[in-house]
Amino acid sequence: MDYFRYDRGELLAEEVPVRELAERHGTPLYVYSVRTIAAHYRRLSEAFGEAPGLPQPPIICYSVKANSNLSILKLMGDLGAGFDVVSGGEIHRVLKAGGDPRRIVYAGVGKTDPEIALGLDQGILLFNAESEEELENIDRIAGRMGRRAPVALRVNPDVDPQTHTSIATGKKETKFGVDLVRALGILERARGLPHLRLAGLHVHIGSQITKVEPYVDTLRRIAEFLPEARRRGLEPEWLDLGGGFGIWYKDKLARPAREIAEALLPLLRGIGAKVLLEPGRFIVGNAGILVTRVLYGKESGGKKFAICDAGMNDLIRPTLYGAYHRIWPVRTDPGYSGEAPDEDRWAGPGVPTDVVGPVCESGDFFARERRLPPLGRGDLLAVFSAGAYGYAMASTYNSRPRPCEVMVSGREAKLVTERETLEDLTRRERVVSFSLT
User: Fold this and answer.
1) pTM score of the predicted model
2) Residues identified as active-site
3) Of 3, 187, 359, 422, which has the maximum CB count within 10 A?
4) Taking the domain 34-283, which CATH number applies?
5) Taking the CB of residue 52, how many other CB atoms lie within 10 A of it?
6) CATH classification code of 4-32+285-422
């Protein structure tokens, strides 16, 4: 669900024509809908907020890695969210956006000493530790700083999240967390670390999960694990269930917030700990589009190509994961009104087209053999569901400046990230000379 729609053939972001934004700011261009972000957060908050039997309603900690734009972080804080971070840079962003450090949860397998010290200095809510050595290191740094670090151990329940292998994190062979058998010994040894407060467990099984069954399996395994963990000294204050709730990219397979909550809340009540959730994509994924302009059309080898000014450096998901994004012209049949169409629902003329970018890689594409209306030079295309892992994963590969970002609320549109310039590309570099003798 989102607030991008066509009105008599014109794509609107809330109440603003996307064509006008492209004319004003150029392309490539990311556009985000404030109303969509707020609606998704509130749906999740309301679904899990009806939680009698829990010590308190779950805290929703927005996953910053999905989209770390400062204005989006400010919006999330205003909505009441906490923050799930995976680096010192993300802590810095949250603080710069006015976020409360006491509502920050810090995950990630490779926290550096300065990053751990930053989290301790800011008084964050919780560190999610992913190994025994990390627990020992947090204890050492906390002791040096005269602090006691609140820590949850990330456990790996060996659950198949039924998602893409690159974003599946709950199987025991991944780099994340520790298996449940090993976790028991680690919990017991952690009791002897004087500068840690063992506060609970963390589990995160993957991303873009479109079924509730993997979460149900995870909670059942945690419930079976807890009696023995309690005998080893863990009385969990927090259970961090992670995130990974899927969204609609093409097929409407992802489960709505209320259905997820109805399946999980009975199991969470049985565990009895305070609950943290870490959604990112669920909140911002459908709230953003990437707008790109067709530079050239060509035919070769029996194929038709639309070559655009956005490339894999702007949105790498199709190249990296083979991800599907709906793509449609910003201006379409003047008689059409409604949500963004796709090739399966379009009754008009269509041509199988590869939508590709200008980057010098064969993998630089957004769609292959996609049935689209005939396209010409200068036409604008919208790549939908690009609000998560779009700009956040963008690069300057091929020395291409990253695009600008705009947020829309009703009839109001504001530039929130300026387009990089050519000078920006080399601002931190130095030209040095060496003797060639």
Assistant:
1) 0.93
2) 360
3) 187
4) 3.20.20.10
5) 7
6) 2.40.37.10
